[in-house]
Amino acid sequence: MTEKQDLQKHQLSLGVVLKRALKLRCPLCGEGKLFEGYFRMPERCKGCNLKYEEAPGYFLGSTYINYGLTITLTTVSYIWLHFIVGIKRDTLIPFYVIFIILFALFFFRYARSFWLAIDKWLSSLGPQNIPGDDIED
Ligand SMILES: [Zn+2]
Predict the structure, then answer these.
(1) Which of 10, 21, 60, 120 is 20 to 30 A removed from 29 (C-alpha atoms)?
(2) d(CA 15, CA 27)
């Protein structure tokens, strides 16, 4: 049985996998930690043996989550602080340069965690529920 078929046997709820992602735990069992250090991930879950990085570049998609949230927070707060509160641009720019760097580093682990959780949740739905996902691999 492949890992994908095994996932389809245990249909995961979106709420459960998102809670596990917030705790930086394995989306499948909720036991194994996703990170051993701040940036280093183990190859497999210690609880269920799920392989975290399925292929080289698997976590590239997590950068879109990180980038999207960072830019959304920056844009919304800039518009509010500059146009409504009235803080000058020259005052805000240095703050945002530091904020963008620190927030992206802080959110790195959560972006990977959410990416993995959403991928495993979608895989658990099975091919009958995902249009175009009927190709065997
Ligand atoms: Zn696990």
Answers:
(1) 60
(2) 11
Query: Which sequence spans correspond to the domains of the chain?
Result: 3-127
Q: How far away, in angstroms, is 124 Cα from ligand 1 center?
A: 14
In angstroms, the CA 1 to CA 120 distance is: 16
CB 21 within 8 A of CB 114: yes
Cα-to-centroid distance, 94 and ligand 1 (Å): 41
Give the mean pLDDT per block of 10 residues along the chain (137 residues): 56 91 95 94 94 93 96 97 96 96 96 96 74 52
Q: Compute, in angstroms, the gap from residue 112 CA to the centroid of ligand 1.
A: 15
CA of 29 from ligand 1 middle (Å) equals 4
